[in-house]
Amino acid sequence: MNISPASLRTAILDIEKDLEKVLGQGAQSPNGQAGHAGHGLGDAKELTAARTEKPIDFGTPSDPSSTTTQPKSADQKNDADQSGSLNQMIEDILKVVMQFLQSLMQKGGDSDSDDSDSGPSAASSRPAPHIPTHTDASAGAGAPAPAAGNAPASAASGNTGVSGSGDLHLPPALEPYRADIQEAAQKTGMPASVIAGQIWAESRGDAGATSTNVNGKTDGGLMQVNADTAAEMKRENPEMFNGNAIHDNIMAGALYLRDQSKAFGGDIGAALRAYNSGPDKVNRNNLSDVGGVGDPNYVKNVQNYAQIIASGQGQLPA
Description:
- This protein folds into two domains: 5-114, no CATH class; 163-311, Lysozyme (Orthogonal Bundle).
- It is built from ten helices and five strands; from the N terminus they run ααααββααβββαααα.
- It has helices at 5-26, 40-53, 74-117, 120-124, 178-188, 192-203, 227-236, 245-263, 268-277, 298-311; strands spanning 163-165, 168-170, 210-212, 218-220, 225-226.
- The longest helix is centred in the first third of the chain and has 44 residues, at 74-117.
- It is rod-shaped and about 115 Å long.
């Protein structure tokens, strides 16, 4: 406990004030009226001196009065009263001093505990990103959303926390596709975290997921791309496909997202709405507006998932 000189001086002044109050209450003049606080100790000294100077008469064996009890004189009563007042005054002073010391020790303990709470860990904490809890009913690339009851089955179960380094922290269900996601991002210029966020929104990492959209076409794979869109992307970019179903599905979805981003001036949000509802349904003033087709929360969901995957902070919904 560290006590500064200024604090000590203040404490001493407080003690002096308290002592003056106590002495002012405890010191009484012989006629019963309260005396000045400064005279309390002086009166006590005079009382002690008076009692010391007063001779004690033990009497003689032949004096019968020495064996009998004599009534107390007025002076003796005064002495007893003043002695009691002095004792009470000393007790009051001790109480004040003890209370002050306890208060001082308590303040010192509080100060020490406050110091221990502060540290670099408090400054380094960051709030976790918001994790949405709603379920996606997402459509494949270039096609309207699937009809009710035809949403792809989820492959994700158990741990949905993200891990990794850089700007790609994947949940365990997407970890097998890390290389394909990174290649698609490199070749299309689309953020890897957004591609991974789309995969999570579309299929939860189930490569065999299928759904039927409102046009009656089947959307399939990790990115829920229908056969027509996949064929168009492959025809326009043959060098980016290698015949592997998983690789080509991710590449086709990333290429379609890139084309929509270009069409809307680099606006990823508008590109995601086009991916989910179709290019003719995009309302750039309100990306929740699906124009009657798609999931109103799709854009927000994918962007939230992408933030979690990019930062490594938070957990994806199951």
